[in-house]
């Protein structure tokens, strides 16, 4: 593995805290001249979402809202200084989506916000940041986006 990050993945759900994670990821991508891949998960239906609903993630139904979130996040990343920005959309839970994007792109850094990690539900049932940290084969940075 090289000493510099070349592909960085960050997830967004359109929330303020996820945009803070995108901003931090964009700054790191700019510093390393890395490709920033912004990912977003979505569910096809309310039934699919309710089967996997977690309190720490925003539920996105259909890929139209997901594309809007990605467009806004990519614009924000470019304004923050990232030069090479790509987007990826995946159906499923945020954790499944991020893991697919990380593995497919062979990313060497995954950045997520800390939303849900300190809640009681997050400690008992897991949270997106904790779950991706356990599952990821690449470095994971959990940025402080929520008090």
From TrEMBL:
Main location: cytoplasm
SUPFAM superfamilies: Adenine nucleotide alpha hydrolases-like (SSF52402)
Compartment list: Cytoplasm
All residue ranges annotated as the UspA domain in the record: 5-144
InterPro entries cross-referenced by the UniProt entry: Rossmann-like_a/b/a_fold, Universal_stress_UspA, UspA
Record bears the keyword Transcription: no
Alphabetical keyword list: Cytoplasm
GO annotation, cellular component aspect: cytoplasm
Family membership noted in the UniProt record: Belongs to the universal stress protein A family.
Name the record gives this protein: Universal stress protein
Annotated organism of origin: Corynebacterium lowii
């Amino acid at each position: 593995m090289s000493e510099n990050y070349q592909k960085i993945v960050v997830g967004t759900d359109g929330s303020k805290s996820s945009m803070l994670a995108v901003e931090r990821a964009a700054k790191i991508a700019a510093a390393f001249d890395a490709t920033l891949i912004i990912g977003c998960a979505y569910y096809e239906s309310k039934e699919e979402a309710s089967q996997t609903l977690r309190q720490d993630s925003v539920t996105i139904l259909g890929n139209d809202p997901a594309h809007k979130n990605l467009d806004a996040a990519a614009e924000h990343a470019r304004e923050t200084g990232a030069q090479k920005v790509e987007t990826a959309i995946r159906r499923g839970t945020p954790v499944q989506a991020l893991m697919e994007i990380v593995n497919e792109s062979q990313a060497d850094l995954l950045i997520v916000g800390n939303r849900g990690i300190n809640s009681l539900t997050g400690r008992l049932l897991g949270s997106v940041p904790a779950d991706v940290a356990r599952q990821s084969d690449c470095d994971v940075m959990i940025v402080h986006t929520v008090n």
